[in-house]
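Contributing new records

If you add data, match the layout below exactly. Sequence lines come first and carry their own label; structure lines follow with theirs. Keep one chain per record. Anything else will be rejected by the validation script.
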Amino acid sequence: MRIVLIGQAAFGGKVLGALAERGEEVVGVYAPADTPPREPDPLREAAVSKGIQAFQPKTYKDDQVFAQYENLKPDLTVMAFVTDIIPVRFFEVPHYGAINYHPSLLPRHRGASAINWAVIMGDTRTGLTIFWPDGVIDTGPILLQEEIDIGPEDTAGSLYFNHLFPMGVEAILKSLALIKEGKAPRIPQNEAEATYEPPCDDRVAGIAWDKPAQEIYNLIRGCDPQPGAYVFVNGEKVRFYGPKFVAEKVDAAPGTILHVDDRGIHVAVLGGRLIIGKARTVHGGKVPAAHIAGERGLKPGYKLGTPS
């Protein structure tokens, strides 16, 4: 079976490696265009190392890009972590069509930030879906799904790297086997259960201290590692990570620093306090939150700023 792989990043590279180990015939790889100073894409690097043709189109709407793809004569296209918009005509060329990996239990959490929103919205379970793309965002029939629990301290990062990443590679291999056996289902998604959320970026990552404690706790976990839920400290954007929640009676106004110790910055919230373990400013990476507090002179009684 002639396979074209469209994807990116470490996940795309791992999928390519897994296909190669299985002896699959990957006839071409599509990765994002290089955008210096960013490092070369791992999928492209993996393809080059294996002597596989690697393409990096700036857009998939170009007729020449499509003609180049047609010339590869794929039997199946595998989409592994795709953020570009792929026109539906690309799915009509392969004999078996295309399959796409999505890190949620579709139709819940369609969109580019599915893992983030599962945590932010307080879901207790999530998973992955391999589906047949149909040209609309995350709406095609389902081939395969696998579920996992979301633990009370899980972050978007821990769910992806510890679970949904390795499970996703294996799910693509399982799906390929089902297709070869003629046993791959096409289960329609239930539109009544569909949700779609916007990208998880700074438009949604600001911490509003008047919200319930659990919502703030979920937001910080759901924005970890990217984009990082944030507050303002003396007009400077500071991002928080690694929170712990303690339910107790607190008299201070929400968003007020209660104290700082080796565990982090203790902040009053409705119904208790949050202990912020790590923090980051625009000037560097994650460091212990107490370090940021010391640098910025944050003491008990300081009110952290709420984004407008």
